Amino acid sequence: MDRYQRVEKPREETPINENEIRITAQGRMRNYISYATSLLQEKGSNEIVLKAMGKAISKTVMIVELIKCEFLNFLPIMMMQRRIVGLHQNAVIGSTDITDTWEPLEEGLLPLETTRHVSVISITLSRKELDTSAVG
């Protein structure tokens, strides 16, 4: 592939809900955590959804755990009994196919298209109880 370069395709911009956070491998964890906690505490959102693909998945899981710890610090002590009351979590995992286009750097070569299977995760944190029949 040293004779090819990947062509950046314009992404299809899907609208992002106000309570949705898309985690990237380059983003700073502190920023994601502070934004999520501000949605839950200051803006009064009952539910936030964190989404990630590929290398950002492990970062997303860590961010969710830190958000849950941060959220527990603000709950009254009476609410924290034997079972943690406060945030409910539901995780959905899957994969998606991403097609990359490669243009040749030398004449005589044909353009290539490759397909990658990339893992995806979507974690919902909610103040209200989520679907108990869901797997995640």
Automatic annotation (TrEMBL):
Primary subcellular site in the record, as a coarse category: nucleus
Q: Which InterPro entries match?
A: Alba-like_dom_sf, Alba-like_NAB, DNA/RNA-bd_Alba-like
Q: Which UniProt keywords apply?
A: Nucleus
* UniProt-listed Pfam families: Alba
This entry's Gene Ontology molecular function terms read:
RNA binding
Give residue ranges for domain DNA/RNA-binding protein Alba-like: 19-73
Q: Where in the cell is it found?
A: Nucleus
Query: Nucleus as a keyword?
Result: yes
Q: Which Gene Ontology cellular component annotation is one that this UniProt entry carries?
A: nucleus
Q: What family does this belong to?
A: Belongs to the histone-like Alba family.
How is this protein named in the record?
DNA/RNA-binding protein Alba-like domain-containing protein
Say which species the protein is native to: Zingiber officinale
